[in-house]
């Protein structure tokens, strides 16, 4: 048996790191879980080095058993980080220890790879036959070329790149493509539902998606993302290769991302576009009927309230039923001809509309249907699963030994809330020394963090401030923000529950602190704002949910994290409210199970932005007094890192001034 501890030591040595007890304990526990088949939830605090903590035992098992393991992380960006940094380090280590180098592969969803059929059959741009993409781009870059010309240059460059990838046997991964917009990529890629299938596609033998899947089938370690894991669970295990174990990184995001993947949307513009696409293949009556359905749906949405739809007699389910019946006829007509690829793809697009319309019309107990509105897209109908725990329990945990890891898996000091969200019941938790009774047995382990939170950070709760209201931020709260930013000399990450609050605070601080640079989400691209925040220590950055997770800013540039209020779900969030009601109806406490758990997770993630390395110091300022005055406050506090806590604002100000050497 390969000694995973030697593999871990070799990997840590390769990056010139130091042995960390938490990382070693994690590796030991992951190895035990892979051997025993007992699911494992392991909380590994920031700085533990959890990627190598699970990769070392995973690769050791690959070498010993020749089994295939899947690693799924939250996003494509994190997937790329693993592929480019941590996995090569771990592979070097396992090769050093064993002389064997397992093969690793990256697997993404279909839309992340170019489609040869779409690229080659998408129609010629006017400029294609005249000049190459580089010359065309130069021609339009300095002029006031319209959007069509710019898009044409972009698509031409993408098509040339696709052909280069095909010639060299590449995968045409979107991350490797020339600079492009979403509109441009749509001209060389295809939605999963519209794929002709390898047997029917004239370019099936060269298909990039099939090539990526073939690589994955030949690998012992496959890295994917939560979205593809969701697709695999929803479609009977067809998206991922067979595997003996699954490791889910950033597991605190799993339920949310599975929900997103299982959520469908229906808009009048989508129906109209799809109808116009198929008109030439339909008789006049059916064509008119299908096209009219966009107006029927629009009228129903306009009549609907922006809330959950529960009555079958409401306008939306009635319109969805009409659309379902008409689109079923269209699918039947289009399906009568099977040797026309364009018609086949269009039929798949109509089938997708039929499926969503059928789901909305059914108003099933397992689904939540609601109407939303945006300035850009107008009104839309959405349908999402009431919860995803059953899907994960039956299609993931029942099938595969699973390790879930994150820096935030204990909420309220316990693993049970996070476990329940993904389908593992408290009763399934394995007592120490007990034998697993079934496929759902799990254990939980917190390996701690290398950080001394009590020495490195202060949690200041502004008990004297008024509780947050619905009419914007109180002037006392705004003044507190400004004073804290002044004391920290900038160096502040402001995490706000709404865009309105972030903008209010920005405006107030810019007025009260004219010498300070306050950036606000929306001023520019978030990536640009984050770069400036990192590069300019005296600059502050205020924003909303996008900043609560994933922003990694170690060092002096972030010595103060301000959180304006406990991030409970919005009271008008139909899905969260439906989940809360379902728990209440079942005799549970919906507020604690849904709202408080949601808030605890975000708070833990937000507060975790402060300490990112062992020499970081600073203050987390919670401006919502309910953290110490409300009954649920203790649950939320125990979900946070173990900072030293105070309600004395003057003490927090003095601590910040000492950090800048003024006291």
TrEMBL record:
Domain of life, source organism: Bacteria
Keyword vocabulary terms for this entry: ATP-binding, Helicase, Hydrolase, Nucleotide-binding
Enzyme class: isomerase
Entry keyword annotation includes ATP-binding: yes
Cited SMART domains: DEXDc, HELICc2
Molecular function via GO: 5'-3' DNA helicase activity; ATP binding; hydrolase activity, acting on acid anhydrides, in phosphorus-containing anhydrides; nucleic acid binding
Listed cofactors: [4Fe-4S] cluster
Domain Helicase ATP-binding: 9-309
Catalysed reactions, semicolon-separated: ATP + H2O = ADP + phosphate + H(+)
InterPro entries in UniProt: ATP-dep_Helicase_C (IPR006555), DEAD/DEAH_box_helicase_dom (IPR011545), DinG/Rad3-like (IPR045028), DNA/RNA_helicase_DEAH_CS (IPR002464), Helic_SF1/SF2_ATP-bd_DinG/Rad3 (IPR014013), Helicase_ATP-bd (IPR014001), P-loop_NTPase (IPR027417)
GO BP terms in the entry: nucleobase-containing compound metabolic process
UniProt keyword annotation of NADP present: no
EC number of this enzyme: 5.6.2.3
Family affiliation: Belongs to the helicase family. DinG subfamily.
Protein name in the entry: ATP-dependent helicase DinG
Taxonomy of the source species: Bacteria, Bacillati, Actinomycetota, Actinomycetes, Propionibacteriales
């Amino acid at each position: 048996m390969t000694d995973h501890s030697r593999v871990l030591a070799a990997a840590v040595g390769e990056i010139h790191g130091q042995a960390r007890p938490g990382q070693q304990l994690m590796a030991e526990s992951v190895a035990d879980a892979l051997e025993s088949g007992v699911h494992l939830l392991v909380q590994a605090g920031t700085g533990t080095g959890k990627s190598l903590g699970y990769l070392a035992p995973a690769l050791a098992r690959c070498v010993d058993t020749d089994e295939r393991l899947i690693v799924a992380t939250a996003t494509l960006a994190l997937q790329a980080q693993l592929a480019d940094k941590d996995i090569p380090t771990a592979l070097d280590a396992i090769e050093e220890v064993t002389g064997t180098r397992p093969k690793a592969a990256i697997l993404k969803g279909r839309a992340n790879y170019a489609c040869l059929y779409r690229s080659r059959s998408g129609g010629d741009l006017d400029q294609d036959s005249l000049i190459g993409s580089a010359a065309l781009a130069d021609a339009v870059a300095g002029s006031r070329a319209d959007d069509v010309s710019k898009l044409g240059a972009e698509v031409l460059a993408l098509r040339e790149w696709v052909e280069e990838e095909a010639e060299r046997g590449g995968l045409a991964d979107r991350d490797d493509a020339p600079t492009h917009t979403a509109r441009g990529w749509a001209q060389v890629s295809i939605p999963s539902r519209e794929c002709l299938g390898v047997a029917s596609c004239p370019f099936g033998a060269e298909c990039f998606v099939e090539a990526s899947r073939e690589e994955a089938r030949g690998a012992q370690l496959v890295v994917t993302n939560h979205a593809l894991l969701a697709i695999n669970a929803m479609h009977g295990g067809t998206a991922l290769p067979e595997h003996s174990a699954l490791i889910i990184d950033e597991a605190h995001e799993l339920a949310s991302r599975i929900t997103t993947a299982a959520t469908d949307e229906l808009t009048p513009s989508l129906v109209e576009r799809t109808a116009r696409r198929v008109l030439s293949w339909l008789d006049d009556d059916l064509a008119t009927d299908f096209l009219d359905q966009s107006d029927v749906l629009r009228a129903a949405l306009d009549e609907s309230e922006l809330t959950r739809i529960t009555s079958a007699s409401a306008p939306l389910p009635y319109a969805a039923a009409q659309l379902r019946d008409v689109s079923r006829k269209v699918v039947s007509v289009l399906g009568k001809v099977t040797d026309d690829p364009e018609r086949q793809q269009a039929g798949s697009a109509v089938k997708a509309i039929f499926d969503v319309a059928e789901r909305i019309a059914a108003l099933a107990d397992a689904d939540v249907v609601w109407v939303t509105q945006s300035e850009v897209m107008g009104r839309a109908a959405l349908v999402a699963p009431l919860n995803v725990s059953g899907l994960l329990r039956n299609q993931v945990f029942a099938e595969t030994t699973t390790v879930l890891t994150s820096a935030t898996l204990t909420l309220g000091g316990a693993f049970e809330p996070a476990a329940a969200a993904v389908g593992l019941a408290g009763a399934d938790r394995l007592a120490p020394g007990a034998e697993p009774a079934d496929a759902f047995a799990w254990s939980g382990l917190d390996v701690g963090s290398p950080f001394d939170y009590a020495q490195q950070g202060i949690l200041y709760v502004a008990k004297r401030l008024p509780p947050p209201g619905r009419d914007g931020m109180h002037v006392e709260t705004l003044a507190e923000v400004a004073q804290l930013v002044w004391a920290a000399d900038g160096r502040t990450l402001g995490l706000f529950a709404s865009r309105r609050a972030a903008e209010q605070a920005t405006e107030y601080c810019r007025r009260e602190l004219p010498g300070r640079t306050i950036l606000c989400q929306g001023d520019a691209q978030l990536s640009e704002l984050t770069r400036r925040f990192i590069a300019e220590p005296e600059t502050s950055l205020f924003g909303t949910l996008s900043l609560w997770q994933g922003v990694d800013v170690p060092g002096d540039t972030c010595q103060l994290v301000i959180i304006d209020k406990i991030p409970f779900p919005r009271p008008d969030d139909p899905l969260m409210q439906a989940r809360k009601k379902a728990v209440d109806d079942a005799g549970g406490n919906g507020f604690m199970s849904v709202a408080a758990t949601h808030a605890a997770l975000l708070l833990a993630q937000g507060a975790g932005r402060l300490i990112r390395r062992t020499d970081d110091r600073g203050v987390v300022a919670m401006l919502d007094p309910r953290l110490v005055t409300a009954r649920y406050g203790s649950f939320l506090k125990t979900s946070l890192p173990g900072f030293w806590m105070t309600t004395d604002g003057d003490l927090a100000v003095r601590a910040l001034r000492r950090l800048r050497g003024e006291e």
